[in-house]
Design goal:
heterotrimer; A alpha/beta (387); B mainly alpha (437); C mainly alpha (51); A: 387 residues; Aminopeptidase; 9-stranded mixed sheet; 33% helix; C: 51 residues; mainly alpha
Chain lengths: 387, 437, 51
């Protein structure tokens, strides 16, 4: 064998070894199945594709859990993992899913709205592939996903994304972002089908409240808040005042901008009768000026650079040595969601949504998030859904 | 933690310098820097050593679609060139516009501006119309160094020009600012700066070549070559780009690579000359190797910088600079960040900068427009120098890269001044955004 | 899988083919051999639908 070919073969072996080592990690991550434990409140489970046939058989399809009360009332849809790199939303949804009991009305939960995004990673951003939440029975392992759907489901991107139906120009990346593809369309790109299916739930099932749960950087002005269009502002404002007074954490209201299209709160308001709310809790992990993107930073939110920037008054949330731990973020979401339902129910007794057995802010901060997750080994097998 | 990250950054810089000293190519030196940085980080488990390969490979996906665009666009233009289309166009330009210099220069400027403005990529401008424009400028008596300089600056402006400006789109997507109102804040400076560049670098005719001599010197064009054979592939390409703009909800999403492939097939069908597409594609990929490798490696470098915290340290340092000093630093920081990280720079430095400027009362849209005039300049700076190297490649300039870069000094300074002034006076210029909407 | 996505896999496979051809043809320059492989890795992983 010539010297050239010897070198070539050595190089090929090295590269194939690297490719296999990383390829196996990507494959395992994409196909890792998270167990969704359907709790006592769950009455039926559907797939999102029921509302848009184009999703059938794709990785964009996802579970829709119905928690129906004995007494009829209003309906609330909770969407989590619109952005799969903002995991406080998913953890909150799972706490509701495993524990909530509905006394009146209906709660619909989609824990992994952008399922494709949750099965991809974010190239260039150096995330860990997984994160683990400690529980009393061990730890529960989650995929760390991406903000956008993966190109394995939706490829190619256009050179520019033209939003339906307003024709506003958006970044080419945003065609895979399920918080830019609302209200969606049945024959559009895959992520437009995902949002269209959710719109169909809202319209067909006459859903009263639509909550899209997120996380936002501490340097982003729209963080630690409820984003609400005009007709949702009153309830949002009342909810923030009540949680501040009773539970002692800050949360403000941001208006949904008229001129920025594709966002859930904007398009749900304009294309359905539901009252939309987008919940943001701070997530330091997503800020640009942080140390390494580790699982620890994701969970405790402690970072020396952000601490220094806080002292320079360059953050939009209070920030000290305690960081922004996951329990605080999840706790806030739990309380704000319940308070929005309460405020709506107070003014609409006929359409009330009464949710019980879900922890509030102080409970989650004290007990930790994992305290509310149950052991799958001890759960009824046919009530475990893999996603 | 800050000290550890600082040490990793120093190790990465030293690794790059040693690799260059050992005469490795720019791309390999960047790869060495990324690998060494990752290994250094692994000592403190950021990233853990068993994830190092995954980070390197995952990073190389960051600009995967750009690899496809570059390859398909270049193969398309290689077919047009091989069929004699490029020479045909250059010959016609010289024949009709040789004596109308100012019109010829402005016409050529628009030819470079349009593909980049439509696609957001200066590289597409260079790959599609760079070679014929370079030849035409050469026959107008402009030396190759200045031709490369014109191509570099105008291609950069084309990327910043509306309707598609990828830096602005990345920033808007990352800062939740709508991508609207950019037509005038970007369009006016791009046109004025483009004309300024063409006139300052291209007005003076050098050499003694007259029209007749130029025409005689040009390569022969195949006999059967006609206007429609040249134009049809371009009409198909631009037709597909524009059709999606006009009927976005009826057209399937083809994406730039497929649009180039369709145009390439049309060019192949109408070529008066038989072309061996396999050999031509193989040679094109070989020619593109340094650029494709840079695109893959810069993604890995970006990922390792994030996983080690180096990226955060750089971002933190920039955000912490006092305001007045920050304005001045932008002159250097923006282009240099682009030179190191290409589009990644817009996310890493741009997003926190926009939030900060917005919070002190500047107008975010105008600030973004101003900054996106500066980013393309960095595409001429090492280590990546993507657009600079492409400009040199398509204009067939063979001398020192630095000498080419130096020849861009005047438009570079003027563009920088315009960009910085737009940032500082963004609030006063906000009427441009209102008038655009 | 939508037809356009299938075409993208074909385009990717074509580029992979060209890169491999160049790699095989390369006789002396080890730097270039490495660079061909560097570009090949993400393209091959995409073709295999791993990432």
């Amino acid at each position: 064998m010539s010297r050239t070919w010897t070198i070539k073969i050595i190089l090929i072996i090295i590269f194939i070894a690297i490719m296999i080592q990383s390829g196996v990690q990507f494959y395992m991550h994409r196909h890792y199945q998270l167990e969704h434990l359907a709790g006592p409140g769950v009455t039926r489970v559907e797939k999102l594709s029921k509302y848009c046939k184009g999703l059938e058989g794709t990785m964009a399809d996802t579970h829709v859990f119905w928690l129906e009360g004995k007494e009829e009332g209003g309906k609330m849809l909770m969407i989590a993992n619109t952005h799969s790199n903002e995991p406080a939303a998913l953890l909150t949804a799972l706490i509701f899913l495993e524990n909530a009991v509905i006394e009146k009305g209906t709660l619909i939960i989609i824990p992994q709205f952008n399922n494709s995004g949750s099965r991809g990673t974010r190239p260039g951003d150096g995330y860990p592939l997984y994160f683990e939440i400690p529980t009393e029975w061990g730890s529960k392992k989650f995929r760390m996903g991406n903000r956008d759907a993966t190109p394995l489901e939706q490829w190619p991107d256009p050179d520019v994304y033209i939003h339906y139906p307003d024709k506003q120009l958006l970044s080419y990346l945003d065609i895979r972002n399920t918080n830019r593809t609302w209200p969606g369309r049945p024959n559009g790109a895959l992520m437009e089908k995902v949002t269209f299916a959710a719109m169909e739930i809202l319209r067909n099932e006459k859903v009263d409240l639509a909550l899209d749960v997120h996380g936002a950087e501490t340097m982003f002005p729209v963080t630690n808040c409820i984003v609400a269009p005009e007709r949702s502002v009153r309830i949002a404002t009342m909810a923030t005042l009540v949680v501040k007074a009773r539970e002692g954490f800050d949360n403000h209201v941001e208006p949904s901008p008229q001129g920025f299209r594709g966002l859930s709160h904007r398009e749900i308001a304009d294309f359905s009768d539901s009252l939309p709310f987008l919940l943001e809790a701070p997530i330091p992990f997503l800020d640009q000026p942080t140390g390494p993107k580790t699982e620890k930073l994701l969970l405790d939110g402690k970072d020396p650079f952000l601490l220094s920037l806080s002292k320079q008054q360059k953050l939009f949330v209070p920030y000290d040595e305690t960081g922004w731990p996951m329990e605080k973020r999840v706790g806030q979401h739990c309380s704000v969601i319940q308070e929005i339902a309460n405020q709506f129910s107070r003014k609409n007794a006929e359409r009330a949504i009464l949710i019980k057995n879900v922890p509030r802010y102080a409970d989650v901060v004290t007990n930790g998030v994992g305290f509310y997750f149950h052991d799958p080994a001890k759960w009824t097998k046919d009530k475990i859904y893999l996603n | 933690m800050e000290l550890q990250i600082g040490i990793i950054l120093a190790i990465m810089v030293v690794a790059y310098a040693v690799a260059k000293w050992k005469k490795l190519s720019v791309e390999l030196s960047m790869l060495v820097s990324a690998v060494v940085g990752g290994v250094a980080g692994a000592f403190i488990k950021t990233p853990p050593v068993n994830t190092l390969a995954r980070h390197l490979i995952e990073g190389s996906f960051t600009y995967l679609d750009v690899i496809l665009v570059f390859t398909t666009a270049t193969i398309f233009m290689a077919i047009v060139s091989e069929s004699g289309g490029v020479n045909y166009v250059v010959r016609a330009t010289i024949k009709y516009f040789y004596n109308l210099r100012i019109i010829a220069l402005i016409l050529l400027m628009f030819i470079i501006l349009i593909p980049g403005a439509l696609t957001g990529a200066g590289s597409v401008s260079l790959l599609v119309v760079g070679a014929p424009t370079a030849l035409a400028l050469g026959y107008l008596g402009i030396p190759k160094k200045k031709v490369a300089a014109i191509l570099f600056i105008v291609a950069g402006l084309s990327a910043a020009a509306p309707p598609v400006n990828i830096w602005a789109m990345i920033l808007c997507a990352g800062t939740a600012i709508p991508y609207v109102g950019f037509e005038l804040p970007l369009g006016i400076p791009v046109l004025l700066l483009g004309i300024f560049t063409m006139l300052t670098l291209g007005w003076k005719k050098e050499g003694t070549m007259d029209k007749q001599k130029a025409l005689e010197d040009m390569p022969e064009v195949p006999e059967k070559m006609t206007w429609w054979r040249v134009l049809l592939p371009f009409l198909v390409f631009f037709g597909l780009v524009i059709a999606y703009r006009i009927w976005p909800f009826d057209m399937p999403i083809l994406g730039l690579p497929l649009q180039f492939v369709i145009a390439a097939l049309v060019a192949l069908l109408v070529s008066p000359k038989k072309i061996n597409i396999l050999v031509l594609s193989r040679d094109t990929v070989k020619r593109l190797l340094p650029l494709l490798a840079t695109i893959a490696v810069v993604g890995s470098l970006q990922q390792i910088m994030t996983a080690t915290g180096v990226r955060g340290l750089l971002s933190f340092t920039v955000i912490s600079i006092p305001l007045l000093l920050l304005y001045i630093s932008l002159i250097f920081i923006i282009p240099i960040s682009e030179g190191v990280l290409t589009y990644g720079a817009a996310a890493i430095l741009g997003i926190p900068l926009i939030w900060y400027f917005d919070s002190i009362g500047l107008h975010a849209t105008v600030v973004i427009a101003g900054l996106t005039l500066l980013w393309p300049l960095g595409d001429g700076l090492p280590p990546t120098a993507l657009i600079g190297r492409l400009s040199v490649m398509v204009s067939d300039y063979k001398d020192s890269y630095w000498s080419f870069l130096k020849s861009t000094w005047l438009p570079w300074i003027v563009i920088t001044m315009v960009g910085i002034l737009m940032v500082i006076y963004s609030a006063k210029l906000s009427f441009l955004v209102r008038w655009s909407m | 899988m939508p037809i356009i996505m299938i075409i993208y896999y074909v385009i990717t496979a074509y580029i992979v083919g060209m890169l491999i051809w160049n790699f095989v043809k390369e006789k002396k320059n080890i730097d270039d051999m490495i660079l061909y492989l560097v570009i090949l890795v993400p393209l091959v992983l995409r073709l295999l639908r791993v990432k």
